[in-house]
Each structure stands twice: as structure tokens, then as C-alpha cells.
Design brief:
By secondary structure, this protein is mostly helical. It has a single domain, classed as LemA-like domain (de novo design (two linked rop proteins)). The chain has seven helices and no strands. Helix 1 packs antiparallel against helix 2 and helix 2 runs antiparallel to helix 3. The longest helix has about 55 residues. The protein starts with a helix and ends in a 7-residue tail after the last helix. The relative contact order is 0.15.
Length: about 180
């Protein structure tokens, strides 16, 4: 009888740990989906932003082409390649920063209502992306702890649960503290 009770307890524990791993994996996948939604929103705004800027800064063609090329590169990253997507999106963020800096040289563009609205929308999306990235990295951390911790790692290895990649900045320039000059 005692042996049966111990056997049932072990089986219940294994089910509990397995379900915890499944939940952690689903949380990480759901969190990645949140990042993906925000990245899609940003990608959808970029063509409108480019068209607005084109009319004011026609001779800044290389900057505009770079933003479009980086947007397309970010969209082409295979699904599941989190590190590749993070690198592509980081490069796109830098190019968008240069595009907004370009707007400083064109006061008419800066005052343009469409441009101001698009810039505001992109800033909102960037804030939401930041929150989504933090949420994803937290979910990835929780999954990784369960995959690596004893005794859940025994079950994770048995059922091929894999660690999740973090959404990280790969470009050192993005990590640098910006200099402010007056």
C-alpha cells in the first residue's frame, strides 16, 4: 500500500513538473508573439513614414533606401530565429533614428502633421516593444530555469524541452551611453 502511494506521488509530481514546463514554454511563445505583433505594427508604419519624408528630403535617398532595405531584411528573418530577428530589428531601429535625425534638417518636415503623427506612433510602438521584450525575456528566463534546474531538468531532457533564446542587443553601439552636448 505504501509502495503504491509513493508510486502515485511520484507520478503526480512528474505530471506537475511536466505541466509546469509546458506552461513556461507556452508563456515564452506567447511573449514572443507579443514582440512579433509590435514589430509588425512598426514595419507597417515605415512605408507611410518613408512616403512622407520623400517629399521633403528627396536628395536623402540613401537614408530612405537603407530604412526600407533594413525593414525588408527584418521581415525576411526566418521564424524562430530570435537572435537574427533581434539583430535585424536593432539595425532597423538605428536607421529609424538616423531618419528622425534627418528630420531635424528639414523644419517643414518636422512641422508636417503626418510626419509628427507617424513619429509619435513609432515612439509609442517602440515603448510597447520595450515592454514586450522585457516580458519575453522574463518568460524565457522562467522556462530556462525550469529546463536547467534539478529535478525538472530530468523531465525537460526526457521530453526535449529546449532553452529559449533571449531577445538581446547584439550591437555594442546600441548599448553605449549617448553623449549629450549643449
Amino acid at each position: 500500500m505504501i509502495g503504491l502511494a509513493i508510486g502515485v506521488a511520484v507520478i503526480l509530481y512528474l505530471v506537475f513538473v511536466y505541466n509546469g514546463l509546458v506552461k513556461a514554454r507556452q508563456m515564452a511563445e506567447e511573449a514572443w508573439s507579443g514582440i512579433d505583433v509590435q514589430l509588425k505594427r512598426r514595419a507597417d508604419l515605415i512605408p507611410n513614414l518613408i512616403e512622407t519624408v520623400k517629399g521633403y528630403a528627396a536628395h536623402e535617398k540613401s537614408t530612405l533606401e537603407e530604412v526600407v532595405a533594413l525593414r525588408n531584411r527584418a521581415q525576411a528573418v526566418p521564424e524562430g530565429d530570435i537572435a537574427g530577428r533581434a539583430a535585424a530589428e536593432g539595425a532597423l531601429s538605428q536607421a529609424l533614428g538616423r531618419l528622425f535625425a534627418l528630420a531635424e534638417a528639414y523644419p517643414d518636415l518636422k512641422a508636417n502633421e503626418n510626419f509628427a503623427e507617424l513619429q509619435s506612433s513609432l515612439e509609442t510602438i517602440e515603448g510597447e516593444l520595450q515592454m514586450s521584450r522585457r516580458y519575453y525575456n522574463g518568460a524565457a528566463r522562467d522556462l530556462n530555469v525550469k529546463v536547467e534546474s534539478f529535478p525538472s531538468n530530468l523531465i525537460a531532457n526526457t521530453f526535449r524541452f529546449a532553452k529559449a533564446s533571449y531577445f538581446e542587443i547584439t550591437n555594442e553601439a546600441d548599448r553605449a551611453v549617448p553623449s549629450v552636448r549643449f
